[in-house]
Write a structure and sequence with these properties.
By secondary structure, this protein is an alpha/beta fold. It has two domains: about 240 residues, Glycoside hydrolase/deacetylase (TIM Barrel); about 90 residues, Immunoglobulins (Immunoglobulin-like). It is built from nine helices and 20 strands. The strands form five sheets. Strands 1, 4, 5, 6, 7 and 10 form a six-stranded parallel sheet that branches. Strands 11, 13, 15, 16, 19 and 20 form a six-stranded mixed sheet that branches. A four-stranded antiparallel sheet has the order 12-14-18-17, with no helix packed on it. It starts with a helix and ends in a 9-residue tail after the last strand.
């Protein structure tokens, strides 16, 4: 890769003025499923780490307004989000957040809230939180996957059905909390290029579950968030995520698809738009397959030929490279796939 000093310097100055990390939590509890939980004591350590290391926790609306207006935020800015409106967010998480006066967002499913389960926040509780500055946003009416089209239904019919559900959920949130941000978090983190276009057509921005930092150029139909529940809740892991830099990598049209049957996809190519790293220090890892061999096609494009078939389920490729200009920080990019079984059946949710 050619190192164009002036271009790299300009890019680094841009990055230094804007690199925001979004953290994704679910439960704050010792008794809920580990894969979606962080203990209250560990959550307190997370929040204290932010305070001790001078990270600025900002509201999600501040981040989105900056992207919309192309106005930079402080480099060490962080957004805190929760998915699914669990009661322990209020009983265990909020008291810790309030100690630091940290803003946060909850993505909710109105259809689940209306079931009045003892494990979920009520509309009254959500309204009180909204009145006190908590952002309440859309996670779908009932937490249904958006990419699993029922047999006998066309994509057009599926999108029409989900448009009604998406807008109904947004309307209910507005009626119950007084808020309508048109922020959407993909249930299970699952999406496709068709769903991305659908999000854009409906004037929403959407948040995913693949890793990475946010820049002014981030695609607002797949805004990355770092999952920080178990087993990714330890402080060294949190530190690395908080110091991530947005990796400006383009995925060309032929590589944008996210849904394959097992064995159908054998490689992927990426185009890199930043020079602030050494190519030999770029590492890419795929879920269950480990580190992958990288083949550079030209100065700015590389290909990964998978070492084995992508496993069934939700799969990610994470690519990282240490920054030359900011030692100790890594560029971080993540690409998800949703791999069906060889017979075309979906994996369990």
């Amino acid at each position: 890769m050619k190192y164009r000093l002036l271009a790299a310097l300009c890019y680094c100055l841009h990055i230094t003025s804007f690199a925001t990390v979004i953290l994704q939590y679910h439960h704050v509890s010792d008794t809920t499923p580990a894969s979606t939980s962080i203990s209250p004591s560990q959550f307190a350590l997370h929040m204290q780490y932010l305070a001790d290391n001078n990270f600025e926790v900002i509201a999600l609306s501040s981040l989105m307004n900056s992207i919309k207006t192309q106005t930079a935020l402080p480099n060490k800015s962080v957004v805190i989000t929760f998915d699914d409106a669990y009661l322990d967010i209020l009983t265990q998480g909020k008291p810790i957040l309030d100690q630091h006066d940290y803003p946060f967002t909850i993505f909710i499913n109105p259809g689940i809230v209306e079931q009045n389960s003892e494990h979920y926040l009520s509309w009254q509780q959500l309204k009180e939180m909204a009145d006190n500055g908590v952002i309440i946003a859309n996670h779908g009416m009932a937490h249904d996957s958006l990419i699993r089209i029922p047999d006998g239904m066309t994509m057009q019919q599926w999108l029409a059905k989900n448009t009604q559900s998406l807008l109904s959920a947004e309307k209910i949130i507005a009626e119950k909390t007084g808020q309508s941000w048109r922020y959407f978090a993909y249930p299970y983190g699952e999406y496709s290029p068709e769903i991305q276009q659908w999000i854009q057509d409906n004037n929403f921005v959407a948040f995913s579950q693949q890793s990475g930092a946010v820049s002014l150029d981030t695609n607002t139909t797949i805004i990355p968030r770092f999952p920080v529940s178990q087993p990714y809740d330890q402080l060294p892991s949190l530190r690395d995520k908080l110091n991530a830099l947005p990796f400006s990598i383009r995925v060309e049209a032929e590589n944008q698809q996210t849904i394959f049957q097992q064995g159908e996809s054998t490689s992927v190519s990426f185009k890199v738009d930043v020079d602030d790293f050494n190519p030999e220090q770029l590492n890419c890892y795929i879920s269950s397959l480990g580190r992958q061999e990288i083949q550079w096609q030209e100065d700015e494009m590389f290909t990964i030929n998978y070492s084995a078939a992508l496993p069934t389920g939700r799969v990610r490729c994470n690519c990282t490279a240490p920054s030359i200009s900011e030692p100790g920080r890594y560029y971080w990019f993540s690409k998800p796939w949703f791999i069906l079984k060889e017979n075309g059946q979906w994996y369990p949710l």
